[in-house]
Amino acid sequence: MGLTSALAAAATRRVAVLVVETPGWGRARCAVEREVRRRGWRAALCPADADVLAVCGRPGERMAAAVDLVWAQLPGPRARIHLLDPNDVAPALDDAAAELADDGRQRADAEERPHDPLMGRPAVDEDGHEDAAAGEDDEDDEDDEDDDHLGGNGDHGDMGHADMGHGDMGHGDMDMPMPGGIPLAGGGEDRDGLALDVLHVPLGPVMPHWPAGLLLHCTLSGDVVQEARVEVLGALEPAPPAADLVHGSPADRCDRAATLLALSGWEDAATGAARLRDALLTDADPADCRPVLDRLARRVSRSRSLRWSLRDLPEVRNHVLVLLASAAASIDGVPAPVSATPLTDLPARLAGRDLAAVRLLVAAAGLDVAAAARTGAVVA
Amino acid sequence: MLDDVVFWVLAAVAVAAGIAVFRVDSMARATYALAVSFVAVGLALLLFDLPYLGVVVVLMMVMEMAIMAIYMIMFMGMNPALMPMSMVHGKRAALAVSSLTFGLLAAGALFVPWPSRRAAPAGDLVTSLGQAVMGSKMLVMMTVSAVLFATIVAALVLALPRGRYDRLGEDLQGDDLPGDDQEHRR
Amino acid sequence: MSVVEVAVGWVPLAAVLLLAVAAAAAALDGALAARAAGRPWTAGLPVPWLETARLLRQRRRSTVAADRPLAATGRIGLLIAALLMVVVVPLGPWTLADLSVGIVWFNAMDVLVWAFVWLAGWGPNSVHALVGGYRFLAQALSYELPLMFALTAPAVAAGSLRLGDVVAEQQGLWFVVWMPVAFAVFCAGVAAFSVWGPFAAAAGPELAGGVLAESSGMDRWLVLAGRWALLAAGSAFAATAFLGGGHGPLLPAWLWTLVKTAAVLALLVLLRRRLPTVRPERLVTPAWLVVLPLVLLQLLVVSVVVVGRG
User: ipTM above 0.85?
Assistant: First the structure.
């Protein structure tokens, strides 16, 4: 048993945490990220990579369903924590580590779980549109190759699809083989004229470096997003704390810059921006952060490789620079304009871009999803 | 003795993987069954003291199969490639043609009076193979390969609907992109 | 210095050595990451061990309608390709197989990576993994030709595809001195076929892990270890083909090989922290329009020197 417990002890010294932010609980997420970094743990990129699922805030019904599905995808040993107050983060992570190290408990958990991977549920939005599986993201698989569920879900009532240009796929054809219950995808027009298969893939709402609560229903040809539809999955009543990560505050700007830098694969710069954000959220005097912020901004603006790699997405690099500059300005008390793309404008920006570019463009759009969730704005 | 064992194992793998190409029901598996078959043949060539040919067969065939994966989605889309499907079409004609070809080649291998070795193999097989295959035509071959390569690239450029003109504008001056204006203004 | 083949019994030791070098590189990377996060760099050193312990305990998972044999092949393949690469790389005076076509062998192994990464992306039947696999192929089409021509330069200079001859030819003057372009391109190619650092777009955060998105436990460990092992094997090859292998004063030849390998690895790891990921669609233009002609020029220079020398 000595070996097992030594392994458990070593394994729980570097825990991978998948953080889920409910719109309006940005501070709690930042607190988790900060504590994770302080302990030498790391953030997970996908459910398969995660040990701990840290849910920040009170997710609404549909968001909660998505979180449950992601929870089912954690390979285990796994632990789930629920955070409302940024001050509770450290003890909650301690509990999670203890739960992970508890072999007996993890074994019991594993025995309770279904052996085979779960099929995702179709993500139906307010208008009755339906996507291939669940509101959980991307990283699940089951649904990915899924398309128009020709009878696969026993659901022929999805008239919403007619507007996607392939309502004529022969929904009743049950002779078609369906590996794992996944039906054949249909072809469609696409950017490059290749007539690739069209897949419906939901992006979000649970995905690192992704705006909290945002659910993007994507129609993919290959890896090119042909069409996208935006939805916001909100929080449960009572409303989130008012004094959360305020859109346009210096900390928020650093947070957004950190996200963009992380997505562009520049780990060190992203860590630098995240540290600045945490310092701004906790420290008394933001002026102390100015020199560090300036250094980071200089480093980012001087990076030729970043400029070159993002040359066909110039708005992404510009946005990082603007974020860092405006964060500095607002620390100095100079009012900086808060730019935010309305959620309704997002789909037009994304059409014809590949999946990776979409991730960068969404992060660079400066969305205020929390506000949309608060006002309950119905989004097309 | 060891060589014999290795040869027969490789031969069995090559044939079995070759059969698998037509028996499996997924394009990805068929593609890589073919790759395995070729790799086994390439490794068998090592036993003939033809290391360069053997290794190049492995290199080229694996690369070719990887490229095949691109054509797979280009022509078939993603999902059909995942569907169980038959890997054979026009069974009867194909069967007739391939049996005939096999019979012909096998008969040739068995009945042609192969010359017996008259001298020891050259010390540097790669060089002598190059001489034997190319000989005085080396310059021609090298020119032709460059021309062929240029033809392939040119054909691709012509076939590509979203090529340079789409990305860089009519005058091919990429610097006129709207994004770069912002870049200069900074 | 002549290179001798050692008995097959040394293979396990070579594998252990390769993994040890790979782990050292990962530890250095962990230390640099810890420093960037504001922690003492020593806290990052055990990262490879802790991550290994974590993944050893983690359960494997599968996905609906996954092609498990193909996924397994792809995942285990990277490590195997790395091991097969070092078979021909001499450690000082010893080598496992002194193939007469060692350089082509290495090249063939790095092409195997194309297949393995794609299979690892295809197998899970998941969008992000699949897109990751195809992104790698797009990247491979950009880096492979410059890499091949960079590999050709030392072969032309030595007049042989045998790595032992390449090392022997560098007695006195390392190839890196008169073929720096080939060396730089080769190092970039090593990072690229290792799906690592600036060339990790196939497994990047913008694809939620890409080819890694669905693997956990030992499956994941195999891919991660395979990537580091490929990087280590590529560095060892670079040290051999361009930095003189075992040539050097004072130290024994085997130690020189290790020191040079470590130096190339450390350089790559240090550089990586300063660079963002290169998006594969951006790579093809400079790779074919700038790097490829440069490498060909380098090759021309090398050929002219060789012909001139007689």
Answer: yes
